[in-house]
Amino acid sequence: MGLRISPGSTVNGIEEGDTEALYPALVKELADTGLAYLHIVRARPDQPLFRELRASWPATLIANPSLPGDGVPADGGMRQAGALLAEGADLIALGRTFLANPDLVTRLRTGAPLNPIRDAYLMYVGGETGYTDYPTLTAA
Question: Is 50 a member of any domain?
């Protein structure tokens, strides 16, 4: 079992207060609980908070790069992923990028262009208007 946290998230009008004090205290308390992983959403390797959380977390750390809200970078987030790995992340989560590109691994390996991220409200609905309505690569 693991835990997913979103430091500084303002989704649905959330206002956490002192994010810089809240999350380090939380992670330090959870460090010895036996959780298999900690997943940090919208992680920013250039921020001291990420480095502090990594230093406090003894198990697997999954980081989700903070990508632009208006789309996926041409490299699929690989630059940000590399920076997170360099700062101590063990695994990288590319959720929206994978939803927009179910064949993401193939696209990254072959240098194929990436599909844009669709309207967030359509990402999970399926069907023609959902995440399944994307062209896929065919083997050459």
Answer: yes
- Is residue 104 within 8 Å of 76, Cβ to Cβ? yes
Is residue 77 one of the residues assigned to a domain? yes
Domain count, the chain: 1
Q: Give the chain's radius of gyration (CA, Å).
A: 17
Pairing state of beta strands 37-43 and 91-92? Answer: unpaired
Q: Which residues make beta-bridge pairs with 37?
A: 2, 60
**68 closest CA partner among 93, 91, 92, 96:** 96
Q: How far apart are CA 117 and CA 97, in angstroms?
A: 7
37 with 62: CB under 8 angstroms?
yes
Assess whether pLDDT exceeds 50 at residue 75.
yes
- Asked whether residue 129 is assigned to any structural domain, the reply reads no
- Give the domain extent around 20: 2-93
Go through the chain and tell me how many residues it has: 140
pLDDT tens-digit series, residues 30-44: 999 999 999 999 999
